[in-house]
Amino acid sequence: MEWNFKTAEELATALRAGDVTSAELTDEAIARIERDDRAINAICVPDFDRARAAARDADRARARGEDRPLLGIPVTVKESYDIAGLPTSWGMPQHRDHRPAEDAVQVSRLRAAGAVVLGKTNVPLGLQDIQTFNEIHGTTNNPWDHGRTSGGSSGGSAAALASGFGALSIGSDLAGSLRTPAHFCGIYAHKPTLGLAATRGMAPPATPALPADHDLAVVGPMARSARDLTLLLDVMAGPDPLTHGVAYDLTLPPARHERLCDFRVLVLDEHPFIPTGAAVRAGVNRVADALADGGARVERHSPLLPDPAEAAMLYRQFLFSGSAARFPVEEHEQLRARAAGLSADDRSLEASLLRGMVLSHRDWIEANGRRELHRQGWRRLFAEFDAVVCPITPTPAFPHDHNPDPLGRRIDIDGVEYPYFDQLVWAGVATMPGLPATAVPAGRSPEGLPVGVQLIGPMFEDRTPLRLAELLEQRIGGFRAPE
């Protein structure tokens, strides 16, 4: 039997029944990687010898009667996570030989759950791109069209899953880095509520692996089915044992509803700053129709929605202030001078990017106060709705663009070019207020490329969009292997 495209849930059932061993699954996964990854380039740091040893250990544990959530299931890990003894470079050449001594907390949780780690997946330089390429490991191609990107920054993980290289993967998300690769590669991903899953050991190689609380960034699961997302999130979720975990236990509330007909959903397909391409709009409408056909209450407008224009501006301020925080002093002063020259009434996305790069702590406090008002607005909205459906980016996967000046790149939306980073506004809808968002497949473009949408839920009610994702998978289908 071909096991490589089975879900983790299916593999767990087969392992418990004795229909297959972890050693067999691992050997089959490694054989597929060795055969097919030359064209995809998803697995940048293989760890096959240790994977085979872990698989044998898993089989022995099962023979002793043990049964853990991921026991014996082959998985991959984004390169940016520390794995003891393996390089963690974040694609930065100066750190190509950095080898941490300890596993990231999420890698430790994978191992404790019994997972077999096949290796690490490729990332863009410093995790700061919507594509996946770097000088050390090269370019990861989209399994559906090798001339297009797999997305970023968890593009290697998404491409690996779409190619049958392991049943699960773990990634991270600051600017759609879980959701965009899922959308581009036709798989599932979940951006958890901010702070839900510990991030220690997912830090740049030049910095110590400390249990820091991040402003926007999260870590989360990637899979080929919605139910697998929940399985992996249950392994990942919970506070860091060095900080909040000393006093807090995690208890996520159940999904608000079990039946599709009980859900109340707000559907969005327009943003004030960027148009939605026809292929993505069709995907949103496909999901909206499936919801309505299943009896859900579907609305297209609500006065309760926090102002999306202000939300996008706030998001870009937070996002780019973080990305520019470690710029050299001289470069920072040049940016400050450019920002000072902006007109006070310039409310463009480009102006928000520049202002964000030189944001002072005083300005950050003011912006954070506005963010709290948005969070309150979302709480009011989620008293009337259970989820929001919207795009992840305006287009399906775009052709590779390695222009060394990212600000000079453009994104083509139905024949019209827009600034490259403007496509991040949809990712920011959930990221800025820290809401959970589940990326789900929503069909194909006319060119045959995957199209996904995101299901945004209430803060710390991650099981609600995850359950809605399961119900949609039953109605419109889910992952399909590349043709």
From TrEMBL:
Signal peptide: none annotated. InterPro entries: Amidase_CS, Amidase_dom, AS_sf, FAAH2. Residues 24-464 form the Amidase domain. This is Amidase. It comes from Kitasatospora kazusensis. The lineage of its organism: Bacteria, Bacillati, Actinomycetota, Actinomycetes, Kitasatosporales.
